[in-house]
């Protein structure tokens, strides 16, 4: 009987010490660290996107120049290439090559910083124009460089751009 009492006492001590305040505390702090680092990554990404968009907007009004990447003149892919390069993200130089980067997403999921691609040449079924989304939601606006207006802001609501729209890609 005495042995049984000691076994039960020993068993109860072992079981009660295995539970958990320290264990759950460690799990809890691990989740906090993970959530904190995730928040930091999201905030860093948001800041980078905001910086890229702000930089692109600085070129608004710049005249169109095929192959241009400066305030003296800029084409559509030059604007996107230069803006992302400023954000330390290197993209290919042409809109067709850019359209292979990142992840293709649905227009329903478009967000600021995504790239819109267009097929503006009715004779060729190839992507030849790109714009950077600067506003998402009910109205999608993008900054790009067009032959007629230079660097300007347009809306996907405009018939011309809506009819030429090809795809959206997220590179950041």
Describe the structure.
The protein is built from 5 helices and 8 strands; from the N terminus they run H-H-E-E-H-H-E-E-E-E-E-H-E. It is of the alpha+beta class. A 6-stranded antiparallel β-sheet has the order 3-8-4-5-6-7. It has a two-stranded antiparallel sheet with strand order 1-2. A hairpin with a 2-residue loop joins strand 1 (69-70) and strand 2 (73-74). The chain starts with a helix and ends with a strand.
Topology, pairings included?
Elements: H1 2-18, H2 21-57, E1 69-70, E2 73-74, H3 76-86, H4 95-98, E3 103-105, E4 115-118, E5 129-135, E6 141-146, E7 150-155, H5 159-164, E8 165-170
Antiparallel strand pairs: 1-2, 3-8, 4-5, 4-8, 5-6, 6-7
Helix pairs in contact: 2-3
Q: In which order are the strands of the major sheet placed? A: 3-8-4-5-6-7
Enumerate the spans where pLDDT stays under 50 for 5 or more consecutive residues: 4-32
- Tell me the series of helices and strands, N- to C-terminal: HHEEHHEEEEEHE
Given the C-alpha coordinates, what overall shape results?
Answer: globular
Alpha-beta content class = alpha+beta
End-to-end Cα distance: 70 Å
Describe the sheet with the most strands.
Answer: 6 strands, antiparallel
The pLDDT mean sits at 86
Q: Looking at the chains present, what oligomeric state does this protein adopt?
A: single chain
Number of helices: 5
Number of strands: 8
Radius of gyration: 27 Å
Strand content: 15-25%
| Share of residues in helices | 40-55%
């Amino acid at each position: 009987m005495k042995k049984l009492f000691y076994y039960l006492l020993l068993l109860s001590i072992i079981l009660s010490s295995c539970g958990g305040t320290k264990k759950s505390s460690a799990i809890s702090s691990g989740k906090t660290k993970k959530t904190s680092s995730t928040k930091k990554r999201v905030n860093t990404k948001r800041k980078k996107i905001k910086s890229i968009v702000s930089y692109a907007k600085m070129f608004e009004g710049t005249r169109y120049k095929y192959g241009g990447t400066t305030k003296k003149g800029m084409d559509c892919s030059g604007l996107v290439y230069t803006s992302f390069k400023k954000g330390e993200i290197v993209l290919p130089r042409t809109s067709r090559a850019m359209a292979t980067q990142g992840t293709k997403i649905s227009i329903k999921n478009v967000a600021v910083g995504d790239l819109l691609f267009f097929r503006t040449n009715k004779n060729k079924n190839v992507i030849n124009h790109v714009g950077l989304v600067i506003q998402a939601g009910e109205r999608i606006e993008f900054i790009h460089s067009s032959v007629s207006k230079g660097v300007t802001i347009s809306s996907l609501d405009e018939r011309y751009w809506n009819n030429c729209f090809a795809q959206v890609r997220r590179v950041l």
